[in-house]
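Lab channel / #folding
Pinned by the channel admin:
"Please post every new chain as: sequence first, then the structure tokens as a reply. Keep commentary short and put observations after the output so the thread stays searchable."

First post following the new format, from NK:
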Amino acid sequence: MIKIKDMKCGSDNVEFTAMISHVTIGKTNGANKTNYLSIVFQDDTGSIDAKLWNATDEYIRELVVGSVVRGKGDIIKYSDNRQMKIVSIDNISYQESQQIEFLAKAPLDSKDMIKQLKGYVRNISNLKLYTLTNYLFEKHFEKFMIYPAASKNHHDFVSGLAYHTLSMLKIADALIQTYKELNADLMYSGILLHDLGKIVELSGVAVPTYTLEGKLLGHISIGQAMIKEAASELNIEGEEVILLQHLVLSHHGKNEFGSPVLPQIREAEMIYLIDNIDARMNMFDKALDQVEAGDYSKRIFALENRSIYKPKMYE
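Reply from TO:
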């Protein structure tokens, strides 16, 4: 068996075990139209596009999103990207416990992340902000620690939400040291809770999709509602509650990016910028992970449809 990251163009009859993260049905051109499947295979090292030609009705029924499969394929180059031509394939299972084995995971140990995240919570000195943040963090701790930060684009791996949040907190530390006027309590609490709504917006860890709440409300409005509900349950009132809601509502920075309000305090502007920095850096890393030094990645829609170059000096 070979991992997806190690699949090279020109290799034939490559044996693999992977999970299907995306699949669509198409028909070939010409007089004798036949069904084919466009599949994205995923394991813990990456993903690859694949084609199954002359797909039977049985394959169409069995090869669904979440299926864990074993097979053989030829690795070819298509439109400057790797692609697999499937030679043979068998459906093994699609139980969630098996799916997770084929998902990429955060590069930091979960116990270490837990320790660091809880340390930031304890560093919040404002009592109202500490109480709200600690209450919500502990209440949703289990999902927060395993959920991805997105279904695609950035930090779309197991514990991606926790890793993204921790990375943002570390960036915030550097900015707080540089810009002394920033309020550390607002920075820490806002970052810790800015994406909490994603545990409701997304369906789960393996092959996450958008829930009904996710589609109709979005994680930004869900998150601010969670803060408002927690404040009511804890009988907390005052400016701190409003500011914390504002940090969540404005953290995408612009109306066209999904924020209903624009940042109107320093900390809100910084959290928006930090969020953008960390998300985009992860997209760069993801794009270059399977690119050889001296080559370009495929075009990345979320990065203004750019191809990203991997300098030879990275080697």
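NK: Strands lie at 14-27, 35-43, 46-52, 68-78, 81-93, 296-300, 306-309.
TO: also worth noting, The longest helix spans residues 266-288.
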